[in-house]
Design goal:
heterodimer, A: 537 residues, alpha/beta, Glucose Oxidase, domain 1, Enzyme I, Chain A, domain 2, TIM Barrel, 3 domains, 8-stranded parallel β-barrel, 16 strands, B: 87 residues, alpha+beta, Histidine-containing Protein, Chain: A, 4 strands, 26% strand
Chain lengths: 537, 87
């Protein structure tokens, strides 16, 4: 038995087999010198893919059924498509190597399908990606895909958003990463998905771990590989009691979140992509307090098109069926490493060219996103919030730009819904002038993670500073009180969407301050509601 | 030039499999074959599967099919027949 530790990011106990997820090699254009030879390699890869698909078709038809087999058939048809083949061949003829050409053209075609206003056609994007991955694997000999046959625990250095997007989420019992932090993408995803997970673990990642039995204890932060009988039975008991606690929270489902003294607060969910909607429904959230937009921009090679963004936002708004959905505009910076943004490396990305600063400088990026959101707003109850605000001037500029976009859409005959405009309060500057900002917007949402980091001058990624960090620092509490009070004096609502919103030891404080909304990971809603309903304040 | 209009009856519209069959069927035809949905302002070369699919033609949409080339007289009735049987 191997025992180790990590930093737990979500409570619970998971027991399952290990899947080691190693880094995907970034596909680079190695260029080809002999174009004829490269075209021939592509031709041969196509033949191999065709033979593989034909064998797979027979096997699927016999073992699974005609419906699944039809999907394989569609893929073989795509393999013959003229636009696809001519695109790839043209790239090879211009000197790119075959694998890279397949990747580029495949990505462009898949994005075009994903942007269509038709559920069936949208889903065909996966088929284009699958056939492209198959060709790339044949051409490079490397497996592009990571597949899980049965539910298990993912062990990895760290996971990027594009890597997690490709995972079959129904099969993940836990994440265990060597790197990461409590606010890393993997940690956020674990909380949304409601699975125990550890980051910053001391685990030695090696392919030999594959298939070994592992226990992840998200309460203590311990993990056990090839556990002995005693540990296994203890952990099974712990898993059972955690399950019972969760079952006990079910009585709060569908109830109004109101304290014993009658203070009402809305409990919303933070999510990262349209596919998280099911966790919002399962978690019984009353709305979405933070829909991150980064997922639409990460893990790709070029800017998403307006239609693609529109479809993603519309999907969420329709699924929410009239419940409020607060969409945060792009919050990206040098730390996110999105190649096509061409952002220069920065000494200090947290204080750098990021979020709204990019949007206000490169208005074309901002325009595309705002047009998509406003178009989608006709399909639900949308609100927009802007990150990293520090001044009244910025807010006025944004409002004028939003007005311009709306007028533009109306002139084109496109309908838009009523959209509330709000800002994140996550810089000390915004908190301190929140009295002035409150007159400009419809709501505030406090991003406590950044507000704390900027106020205390502590980088949360730096473990050495843990001893100095105090999430309940009086400076933060005073700012939170001031923000809520300034919002209410101006007659607007205020919420908290940072990690602190889910801190059960602060629920009473937040209710006293008068916060109107708390937005947390969807899996936290019922627990938080229990706390509100039983609160004496 | 030959042309005919056809209103899609299949509840899935022009989806992958029949579209694939159509593309295969006309791959050897000399004439150019174009499918157009006039109401939506979309058109595609019928020999290109992804382009045809990306039109996302739905049940009830009326498509205009145009066949132009030296074998148009022979193939136009066959293509029309194919639409009636498959869409």
């Amino acid at each position: 038995m191997v025992v180790g530790r990590g930093r737990p990011v979500y409570e619970g106990v998971a027991i399952g087999r290990i899947y080691v997820r190693t880094k995907e090699k970034e596909l680079v254009d190695r260029k080809c010198s002999d174009i004829e030879k490269e075209l021939k390699r592509f031709e041969e890869a196509k033949e191999t893919a065709r033979a593989e698909l034909s064998a797979l078709y027979d096997k699927t038809a016999a073992e699974i059924g005609e419906e699944q087999a039809a999907i394989i058939e569609v893929q073989s048809l795509f393999l013959e498509d003229l636009d696809y083949l001519e695109g790839i061949e043209a790239m090879i003829k211009s000197g790119s190597d075959a694998a890279f050409s397949v990747h580029e053209i495949g990505d462009a075609q898949a994005s075009a399908f994903a942007a269509l206003d038709d559920e069936y056609m949208k889903a065909r994007a996966t088929d284009v990606r699958d056939i492209s991955d198959r060709l790339i694997r044949i051409l490079t000999g490397a497996d592009q895909g990571f597949r899980m046959d049965e539910p298990g625990i993912i062990v990895a250095e760290d996971l990027t958003p594009s890597e997690t997007v490709a995972l079959d989420k129904d099969k993940i019992l836990a994440f265990v990463t060597r790197q990461g932090s409590s606010n890393s993408h993997t940690a956020i995803l674990a909380r949304v998905m409601n699975i125990p997970s550890l980051v910053l673990t001391d685990i030695d990642i090696d392919p030999s771990l594959n298939g070994k039995l592992m226990i992840v204890d998200g309460f203590s932060g311990n993990y056990y590989i090839e556990p002995d009988e005693k540990t296994l039975s203890e952990m099974k008991a712990k898993q059972k009691s955690a399950g019972e606690y969760k079952a006990g929270l079910e009585q709060y489902r569908g109830k109004e979140s109101v304290s014993r003294k009658g203070r009402k607060v809305k409990l919303f969910a933070n999510i990262g992509s349209p596919s998280d909607i099911k966790y919002v429904i399962d978690g019984d959230a009353e709305g979405i307090g933070l829909l991150r937009s980064e997922f639409l921009y990460l893990g790709r090679d070029d800017f998403p098109k307006e239609d693609e963004l529109f479809e993603a936002y519309r999907t969420v708004l329709e699924a929410m069926n009239g419940k409020k959905t607060v969409i945060r505009t792009l919050d990206i910076g040098a730390d996110k490493k999105v190649a096509y943004f061409n952002l220069d490396a920065e000494e200090n990305p947290a204080l750098g060219y990021r979020g709204i600063r990019i949007c206000l400088t490169q208005k074309d990026i901002f325009r595309t996103q705002l047009r998509a959101i406003y178009r989608a707003s006709a399909y639900g109850n949308a609100a927009i919030m802007f990150p990293m605000i520090i001044s009244v001037g910025e807010v006025r500029e944004i409002k004028a730009f939003c007005k311009e976009i709306q007028d533009e859409l109306h002139a084109e005959g496109i309908k838009t819904g009523d959209v509330e405009l709000g800002i994140m309060i996550e810089t000390p500057a915004a908190a301190i002038i929140s009295d002035q900002l409150a007159h400009e917007v419809d709501f505030f949402s406090v991003g406590t993670n950044d507000l704390t980091q900027y106020t205390l001058a502590i980088d949360r990624q730096n473990e050495k500073l843990d001893a100095f960090y105090d999430a309940h620092h009086p400076a933060i509490m005073r700012l939170l009180e001031m923000i809520a009070s300034n919002a209410h004096q101006a007659g607007i609502w205020a919420g908290i969407c940072g990690e602190l919103a889910g801190d059960l030891s602060l629920t009473d404080e937040f209710l006293k301050m008068g916060y109107d909304e708390l937005s947390v990971a969807p899996s936290r809603i019922l627990e938080l509601r229990k706390n509100v309903i039983n609160s004496e304040v | 030039m030959k042309t005919f209009d056809y209103t899609i009856k299949d509840e899935l519209g022009i989806h992958a499999r029949p579209a694939g069959l159509l593309v295969k069927k006309i791959a050897g035809v000399h004439s150019s074959v174009t499918i157009e949905v006039k109401e939506k302002g979309k058109s595609a070369d019928a020999k290109r599967l992804m382009a045809v699919m990306k039109m996302a033609v739905k049940q009830g949409d009326t498509v205009t099919v145009t066949i132009e080339g030296d074998d148009e007289d022979a193939v136009a009735p066959e293509i029309e027949q194919f639409f009636k049987e498959n869409f």
